[in-house]
Amino acid sequence: MKSILLTGTAGFIGSNFAPYFLEKYPQYNVINLDLLTYAGTLENLKECEGNPRYKFIKGDICNRELVEFIFNEYDIQGVIHFAAESHVDNSIKNPGVFVQTNVTGTFTLIDVAQKYWMKKPFEYKEEYKGCRFHHISTDEVYGTLNETDFFTEETPYAPNSPYSASKAGSDMIVRSYQETYGLNTVITNCSNNYGPKQHDEKLIPTIIRKALAGESIPIYGDGKNIRDWLYVLDHCKGIDIVYHTGKQGNVYNIGGRNERTNLQIVDAITTILDEKVPHANKSYKELITFVEDRAGHDRRYAIDATKLETKLGWKADENFESGIVKTIEWYLQKYENT
Ligand SMILES: NC(=O)c1ccc[n+]([C@@H]2O[C@H](COP(=O)([O-])OP(=O)(O)OC[C@H]3O[C@@H](n4cnc5c(N)ncnc54)[C@H](O)[C@@H]3O)[C@@H](O)[C@H]2O)c1
Question: Is residue 139 flagged as an active site residue?
């Protein structure tokens, strides 16, 4: 039985991934390392509790001693690295922790993995041959787009926020371990995710929560910034495919070809809420309020996922219309129970 280290699984994407992975692969022990910052909660991992192949460890990916202990204690034979500071607005207010967690944390993890698995550059220890480090990254490293282009794996990096710059830095560290040491790495750069378990601070949960509370729904600037939205379980399936079948040293973009402006997002959600939980003959749309734009707000992100689709056979199962209904149903339950 192999032990795989997953980091950051008390957060949004990791906590969707961990139960999916545990159920699909009975041959893995899954060790979860998460600091439980404001962004992570064990509530998100309730489905995994009690599973004998699931172990949770509270701790910091920057803590080298702890990471070394985990590799030795559990004989880690693969890493899927989600842990990060992830909210752009926070990175504008407090960039230092983004550099610490996203850059130093990724360095610490990959350096421990390389030393644990390899004898010397380009030579794995016999028992660790093939052990892989999968780094989870974002399309934000590519910067912002005009109205027609798409991000491909060849798009030059041009990060614009401290968040995306710190993720770009972590991607470069992973790349260097591939090139310098021959460590088996893959990187996935994904577009905006939505779905269950996302932190309240992010756009879609904010829209739903504010609407239900009858509070104004804040939309940045003119609301015309475009993001390419992917249902979180489709991201998890893409990660699984790349982890198991992606080519060593490769980068794969993951995206659902579901571009929407923020105005389209708020419109879709309020339309569904108007049907599902009508509110005193008023539309939730009346709560939409434009607020001062985010500093350095990227205008458009859009992913070309052709490589992942054609080389590894991944395809998104949800489109935005189907995924957003599932998402709203999940948050309705959450907010009605709090
Ligand atoms: N959410 C998106 O739309 C999106 C899109 C593309 C890529 N990503 C990437 O996916 C990954 C997961 O994103 P998310 O949205 O789930 O983030 P999140 O903020 O919801 O969760 C991050 C998790 O990491 C943990 N963490 C933070 N600092 C840590 C540290 N020093 N040591 C250990 N754990 C720590 C937090 O406690 C939290 O549980 C990130 O690397 C992010 O950059 C996210």
Answer: yes
